[in-house]
Design a protein that fits this description.
218 residues; alpha/beta; TIM Barrel; seven-stranded parallel β-sheet; 9 strands; 51% helix; 16% strand; globular
């Protein structure tokens, strides 16, 4: 199962990040991006919500039930309890904003894919040595392509996912550098368009992203 999920991540490349939306708006968003070709969706924990554990798990369960062709993961995962709740709900991968060895180990113990966030060479190698499957280079656009080229000099053997400031305007640039995929939040999960019910525009943007990703070879 984990190998199949890896194949899907590496083939599809685009992970949509759904932050602070739930219920029907979330499900309508998921339906729109799926029509646009995006099959990977990360539902983040809202750390300011006292009921985040239950709410995020329920969102994951509902998405899996409604959209079985999608590959659902949990994001902004900061501790073992959140890893387990996401796993119990059916999440296939765990995404974190930081490198926390305990979270990585908990993820791997439960047979899920680990995607921790890292910025420095030390964080990147710490995550890799702890068992991470992919490294979320974050905040990617802030670091820029020059930084990534420098990182890829000594550490090009790892698998990176770009997150933070990624959009249709710069996606091709980062994928062309050798980054295998991208997590895309606000540019795709556009709260204004969701509130206005303009899911056709969200679908169109998702299609634009998937077309760019499909054009990159390797």
């Amino acid at each position: 199962m984990i190998q199949e999920t890896k194949k899907q991540i590496e083939a599809k490349k685009i992970i949509a990040i759904a932050r602070t939306i739930s219920g029907e708006p979330l499900y309508n968003f998921a339906g729109a991006i799926l029509k646009g070709g995006v099959e990977l969706l990360e539902v983040t924990y809202n750390q300011t919500d006292p009921a985040a554990l239950e709410n995020t798990a329920e969102s994951i369960r509902q998405l899996i039930q409604r959209f079985p062709q999608m590959v659902i993961g949990a994001g902004t995962v900061l501790n073992r309890e959140q890893v387990k709740a996401a796993a119990d709900a059916g999440a296939k991968y765990i995404v974190a904003p930081n490198t926390d060895v305990d979270v990585i180990k908990a993820t791997k113990e439960l047979g899920l894919i680990s995607i921790p966030g890292a910025m420095t060479p030390t964080e990147i190698m710490t995550a890799h040595n702890a068992g991470a499957d992919y490294i979320k280079l974050f905040p990617c656009d802030y670091l820029g392509k020059g930084y990534i080229k420098d990182i890829f000099g000594p550490i090009s053997h790892l698998k990176f996912i770009a997150t933070g400031g990624i959009s249709a305007e710069n996606l091709e640039t980062y994928l062309s550098l050798g980054i295998l995929g991208a997590g895309i939040g606000g540019q795709l999960c556009n709260k204004k368009l969701i509130a206005e019910g303009k899911f056709d525009e969200i679908e169109a943007y998702a299609r634009k992203l998937t077309d760019i990703a499909a054009s990159i070879k390797g």
